[in-house]
Amino acid sequence: MADIRSICVYCGSNSGHHPEYVAQARAFGTELARRDIALVFGGGKVGLMGNVADAVLAAGGRAIGVIPRHLVDREVAHHGLTELQVVDTMHQRKTRMYELSQAFVALPGGFGTLDEMFEMLTWAQLGLHTWPCAFLDVRGYYRKLQQAVNHMVDEGFVRAEQRDGVWFGEDMQALFDWMTHYRASYTPKWTDPAVIAAPASE
To answer: Taking the CA of residue 41 as centre, how many other CA atoms within 13 Å lie in the half-sphere pointing to its CB?
Structure first.
């Protein structure tokens, strides 16, 4: 069972075209505070990032931001957080967010959100961590991504058990229940003898 004290949230530095994106981001932040789970995020005051953090803080929760110095200099840092950690590079930012978290959730976002989330999925695939990874769908935003992941399985590039270890869904309460009871159940890539022994043509 996962011991979740803080959740890393990846999401857009934009708010999207529909009010529901902001509403769900704020609802997620409020729920984190209600459950006494700290928010770890990219430290920005803009877009869905800022809305999640503002909701956490408004509900009395803890919000920890990690931001590279060049973004602080562009005045997008959120200076009202419980804690703001400033690092030198984007790589350091991602590593520090990982170190502070026991679960990873993607709300709607763009290239950066997918980059960060898929890195955590890759690390889980390699056995570098055993924390839960989930996509909270809003307005069907991640439905086609889920279909793409299923296609990766169908074409033999992702194992079904690895796909099954990632949560996709719209129900926030179901997401928290899943994370609470999560236990990594698949063999990491390159430690499974069947995978290591497979011919290169397979």
So the answer is: 36
Could you give the number of structural domains in the chain?
A: 1
Residue 191: per-residue pLDDT: 60
Q: In this structure, is residue 189 part of a structural domain?
A: yes
Measured CA to CA in angstroms, residue 60 lies from 17, 142, 200 at distances of: 28, 30, 54
Integer Cα distance of 174 and 26 in angstroms: 17
Q: Give residue 184's pLDDT.
A: 80
Residue 202 resides in a domain: no
pLDDT digits (tens, 9 = 90+) for 103-141: 999 999 999 999 999 999 999 999 999 999 999 999 999
Domain that includes residue 133, residue range? 6-197
**Backbone phi, then psi, for 2, in 5-degree steps?**
-70, 135
Count the neighbouring beta carbons within 10 Å of the beta carbon of residue 66.
Answer: 23
Q: Shortest CA distance to 195 belongs to which of 152, 154, 162, 150?
A: 162
Antiparallel, parallel or unpaired: β 166-169 and 133-136 = parallel
Q: What is the pLDDT of residues 152-169, one digit of tens each?
A: 999 999 999 999 999 999
Q: Which residues contact 55 (CB under 8 A, 6 or more apart)?
A: 25, 26, 27, 28, 29, 30, 33
How far apart (Å, rounded) are the C-alpha atoms in residues 192 and 145? 27
**If DSSP codes are grouped into helix, strand and coil, which group holds residue 156?**
coil
